[in-house]
Amino acid sequence: MNRPLEGLLVLEFCQFLAGPSAGLKLADLGARVIKIERPGSGDACRQLSIKNIFVEEDSLLFHTINRNKESYAADLKNPEDLAKLKQLIAKADIMTHNFRPGVMEKIGLDYQSVQLINPQLIYGVVTGYGKEGPWAGKPGQDLLVQSVSGLTYLSGSAIDGPVPFGLSVSDIMCGNHLAQGVMAALIKRAKTNKGVLVEVSLLESVLDVQFEVITTYLNDGGKLPNRSQAKGSAHAYLSAPYGMYETADGYLALAMGSLPEICQLIDCDITDLYTDTHSAFENRDLLIERLAETFKKQPSRLWLERLERHGIWCAEVLNYQSATALNNYEYLQIEQQLDLGNAKQIRTTVSPIRLDHEKLFAAKAAPKLGFDTAAINNEFDIN
Amino acid sequence: MRPLEDYLVIDFSQFLSGPSASLRLADFGARVIKIERLGVGDICRTLYTSDLIMNGESSVFHAINRNKESLEVDLKNEDDKKLVQELLKKADVMIHNFRPGVMERLGFDYNAVAVLNPKIIYGEISGYGTGGDWKGKPGQDLLLQSVTGLTSLTGNEDSGPVAMGLSVVDMLAGAHLAQGILACLYRKVVKNEGGFVQVSMMESAYDFQFETITTFMNDGGCLPQRSKKNNANAYLGAPYGIYQTENGYLSLAMGSIPVLGKLLGCAELLDYTDVMEAYSKRDEIKAILAKHLLTGSTAHWLSILEPADIWCADVLNWDTLMAHDGFKSLNMIQEVEMADGYQYQTTRCPIRIDGELLTSAKGSPKLGQDNTQIKEFINQNIIADA
Q: Among A4, A166, A254, whose Cβ lies nearest the Cβ of B184?
């Protein structure tokens, strides 16, 4: 198939998640992505495992983030390797890195320096907190960035204290933003024929995720988010019934909807708590607790049948086992299989974007450290 | 010069997912025209959050729809339909997030629009795909979090399901749509071809979980196990989490347990010398840490841990964040102004291009505020073409 970024060469000097997740997006959209890795150790993510799962010498985590890429081993502190890399940079369309501010300047691969080698290069930089200010030197780690961004006061209930998102949300959003910025830069470059600098940071990305609620805060006199005291509430700014409710055999989620209609359908008396639509805000916690008492009495399926029939926005709360067993999970082709050679395979996700009616399958497994060095040297006449 | 200067985006979408994609394209320099239903407009205008109404509309609408124009039309009226068709002939991008079948009925599905303009990039967002047995279900963020297992990752072991307290799936779907559209716009520059980009919230929710769901696929189908207390990631060992201190909270990322014990003066932690114990004994390690960190202030612990390069941070709310120079130096807040002079503050685009902050002073549009101008624009173009 005709992938939009075919023919483009990306050099990825990034490690861990944010930068490499952008590289994965570009690879699935058709670009050729070469990881530039330190000989001997490579991307530190190769040894960073979750649940200690490794696939041969590299972690499953590394395989997840770095499929559909090549690996070129080079030591940035070795002058010979650096000279080779500069030859490669001269041929590239895009390079990305996530070193702390100042590192690439010392090596001589900062944006200004590489423009002399390749004036049309698109140069993407990921930092934790931007390149200036008192936080510029701090480690750009997801949980720490979530913690300083105010995000931890939006989930869970008020009695919980700060609750972080249970995934590396600032890394992942930042990777999405880098991919967007790089592609916008490609369009700009087509007009100007000049290189473009794209800069993102984990902190700016996780603030962008909060843009709706921060805008509310900036214009409501600076009121901090007021999470519900009730267990299962799902949004500090939305009124009852928005949340998740325990049933006789599981949980169900209820999004926004008319409380009088819902309560009639589930036979729950709220007349003492509800007089008009404002009550859904004013008495949010009491209303959520009242509904919770009713929902506990019957199984999820019964409630869903009653509510869905009337167009109420609701769903059963699923875990990975029940979620991946859905017909729709199979229908959407969430999974693909990567071939690791010697009859080994791993399963992972596919790009979430469909183009011209096709899913962007890419079954190439992540590269072993330096696997492509010799072939790349040969192909680009690097010596 | 902005990357998408001179590009025209026609956006039929409502709420957050599609409009967040067109906001990004607007900040990249495109002209974005919202196509809004006569008399009502984007339902987000009246979807009140926190009861905060600004200049007649919800705060959320203002955040999502700044830097855009509004064309108010009745797509079932032939004259209005013709007007929108003329606009689509001029457009580079069209976006919608109606449920499957709606655009076919209105005559603005991809096949119909591609006849008008074969070079257009057509982007659509659905909840659960455009076919299959769930295509008719409402694509609402909390419901998507609930059916994709996402609510089993946040909170502690005994918390039950915990939602991420933002419409994160909407925003991811919007981000993925913007990526697909940008990729196709680049292809259009090179090959002069149109494109059809489809994103579903369900696929976007799994892409967000690609690390954890890949683990689930390959570890024999074990469900994520959140730690008893102080959980921040179901798959990571101690100390990863947020801990209460004497006067606030402290977050701790990865770090060796005995090293932490030594630095913090906590003898009980010195015995956990086997690195595997950080995961296998995380509940007891976290309990020891939690008890110990309560005995000192956040600043005290930071003053010990930061010089030793331990990954840690204070836990801030928006008041303390925005008072900090680390935040101020980002210049993340901008003030925008609506056509009627109403001003409000909001965040800016998080991406910098060539060192420039992609700010824009233009606030959100009142429903139909650009009708006259857009009609003139189309009439002039029709005359010019004739």
A: A4
- Distance, in Å, from the CA atom of A89 to the CA atom of B222, rounded to the nearest integer, reads 43
The pLDDT, as a whole number, for residue A341 is: 84
Tens digits of residue pLDDT in B174-207: 999 999 999 999 999 999 999 999 999 999 999 9
Q: Are residues B255 and B181 in the same domain?
A: no
- A352: chain B residues, CB-CB within 8 Å: 172-173, 176, 199-200, 203-204, 206-207
Segment A116-122 mean pLDDT: 98
Could you give the angle at the alpha carbon of A165 between the alpha carbons of A160 and A177, nearest 5°?
Answer: 150
Q: Could you report the per-residue pLDDT of B3-58, keeping only the tens digit for each? A: 999 999 999 999 999 999 999 999 999 999 999 999 999 999 987 666 789 999 99
Q: Each residue of B269-304: pLDDT tens digit? A: 999 999 999 999 999 999 999 999 999 999 999 999
CATH number for A9-209+333-379: choose from 3.40.50.10540, 3.40.50.2300, 3.30.1490.480, 3.30.1390.10: 3.40.50.10540
In-domain check, residue B221: no
Contact call for residues A93 and A8 (beta carbons, < 8 A): yes
Pairing verdict, β A251-254 and B333-337: unpaired
Range of the domain at B265: 241-322
Catalytic residue among A81, A171, A220, A267: A171
The rounded radius of gyration (Å) of the Cα atoms in chain A is 25
- Per DSSP, the residues of A248-314 read SSSEEEE-S--HHHHHHHHT---TTT-SSTTHHHHTHHHHHHHHHHHHTTS-HHHHHHHHHTTT--E
Q: Give, in order, the Cα–Cα distances in Å from B318 to each of A149, A154, A214, A222, B324.
A: 7, 11, 8, 9, 10
A11 forms beta bridges with A34, A95
Question: Which of B120, B121, B207, B226 should one mutate to test binding to chain A, selecting the residue with the greatest count of A CBs within 10 A?
Answer: B207
In chain A, ranges of CATH 3.40.50.10540 domains: 9-209+333-379
Average pLDDT, chain B: 96
A29, A123, A131, A147: best mutation site toward chain B, by most B Cβ within 10 Å?
A147
Residues B301 and B338 in one domain: no
A153: which chain B residues are within 8 Å (Cβ-Cβ)?
A: 317-318
Q: Does any domain span residue B75?
A: yes
By the 8 A CB rule, do A287 and A241 touch? yes
| Backbone torsion region of residue B261, taken as left when φ is above 0, otherwise alpha when ψ lies between -120 and 50, otherwise beta | alpha
Smallest CA–CA distance, residue A104 to chain B, in Å, is 17
Q: Where in chain A is the domain with CATH 3.30.1540.10?
A: 243-324
Residues of A in contact with B240 (CB under 8 A): 143
Nearest-CA residue of chain A relative to B275? A52
Residues B136-183: pLDDT tens digits?
999 999 999 999 999 999 999 999 999 999 999 999 999 999 999 999
Q: Which residues of chain A does B49 touch, with a Cβ-Cβ cutoff of 8 Å?
A: 212-213, 216, 237-238
Backbone angles phi, psi at B72, to 5 degrees: -95, 120
pLDDT tens digit sequence for A149-180: 999 999 999 999 999 999 999 999 999 999 99
Query: For residues B73 and B87, what is the distance between their CA atoms, to the nearest angstrom?
Result: 12
Give residue for tokens 């489809």: B198
B74 CA to chain A: closest CA distance, Å?
Answer: 25
| Amino acid, single-letter form, for residue B356 | E
The string of DSSP codes covering A319-332 is -HHHHHTSHHHHHT
* Chain A: closest CA distance from residue B79 (Å): 31
For the question of residue A267 being annotated catalytic, the response is: no
B346 shares a domain with B258: no
Best residue in B6, B130, B218 for a mutation probing chain A (most A CBs within 10 Å): B218
Domain A243-324 CATH assignment equals 3.30.1330.40: no
